[in-house]
Design a protein that fits this description.
Elements: H1 3-7, E1 8-9, H2 11-20, E2 25-28, H3 39-44, E3 51-52, H4 75-84, E4 93-96, H5 102-113, E5 119-122, H6 125-131, H7 165-170, E6 175-177, H8 181-185, E7 202-203, H9 219-228, E8 238-240, H10 247-256, E9 262-263, H11 267-271
Parallel strand pairs: 1-5, 2-3, 2-4, 4-5, 6-7, 6-8, 8-9
Helix pairs in contact: 5-10
């Protein structure tokens, strides 16, 4: 399996798997900054058999302080949730969303950081599924309890590389800010109380990794974008966003080309909450 196929699955491939009766756990992770609760949309229509996952309540642990707006859950809590979602040992997982791959990117990152070996993002999400003629069902799915085991108990030091605030600010690795340009520059900050970016970070808006229909850039398009941003495949890079959600889209896109980028999970919400951290504004890294 090549790098792209290890990260993404097409609607046609998922439909074939469902129709053939091959086991697969499908997780609906709808989330938007302005509509964080995707459950009502899920109930109105979802991929048959898909179980709703709350990014806010199940892919984050808000009991943790000092690690941004969406702290990572523990491996133990994630294992409980995965079993509640019906995920079983050695059964592949497909995650999808309906907004710019943010929810599915977060789920993909969290589950693979926890050590699950086969987790893929539905390329193009819910819109692509429907456009391809994929079936839909309404109402909630109540799966049989799963039995999956989470090998990694601390996702901050799990199977995917992460950066602490100190590492993110040290300048030892190229650092990319996945937020929209106006949030990066500090000209319009609508989510966090402080505008700007981590000194030294360059802007790589996560939406630029997607095409107009919400699918990930193909290999050629991604190679052009990486070249434009002087990203050397041989040099490790880091990424952050507002709170560790949309930066996972950048990391997933890079993973399709075989690059294993590090995430600063607390991202800008953690960095800017410490008055001792310097803040850069404007377009200068």
């Amino acid at each position: 399996m090549n790098s792209r196929d290890a990260v993404l699955i097409t609607p046609a491939e998922l439909a074939d798997r469902i129709q053939s009766g091959e086991p697969v756990a499908i997780l609906d992770v709808r989330w938007r900054i302005d509509v964080p609760d995707g459950r009502p949309a899920y109930l109105d229509g979802h991929i048959p058999g898909a179980v709703y996952v709350s990014l806010e309540d199940e892919l984050s642990d808000h009991s943790i302080s000092g690690r941004g707006r969406h702290p990572l859950p523990s491996g133990d809590k994630l294992q409980e949730a995965l079993r509640r979602w019906g995920v079983r040992q050695d059964v592949p997982v497909v995650v999808y969303d309906d907004w710019n791959r943010a929810g599915s990117g977060r789920a993909w990152w969290v589950l693979t950081a926890a050590g699950l070996p086969d987790v893929r993002i539905l390329d193009g999400g819910w819109a692509a599924w429907r456009a391809s003629g994929g079936a839909a069902e309404t109402g909630a799915v109540d799966p049989q309890p799963g039995n999956v085991t989470v090998p990694q108990k601390d996702l901050y030091a799990g199977s995917r590389p992460t950066l602490t605030a100190e590492q993110a600010g040290a300048g030892d690795v190229p650092l990319f800010d996945a937020r929209a340009p106006e949030r990066y520059t500090g000209d319009s900050e609508t989510v966090d109380p402080v505008g700007g970016h981590i000194p030294g970070a360059r802007n790589l808006p996560f939406a630029t990794l997607l095409t107009s229909d919400g699918t990930f850039l193909d290999d050629a398009g991604l190679a052009r974008l990486l070249s434009e941003h002087d990203i050397d495949p041989a040099v490790p890079v880091g990424a952050y966003c507002g709170s560790g959600v949309t930066a996972t889209v950048v990391i997933a896109a890079l993973a399709t080309a075989g690059h294993d980028a590090a995430l600063f999970p607390g991202s800008w919400s953690e960095w800017s909450s410490d008055p001792g951290h310097p803040v850069a504004r404007g377009n200068e890294a």
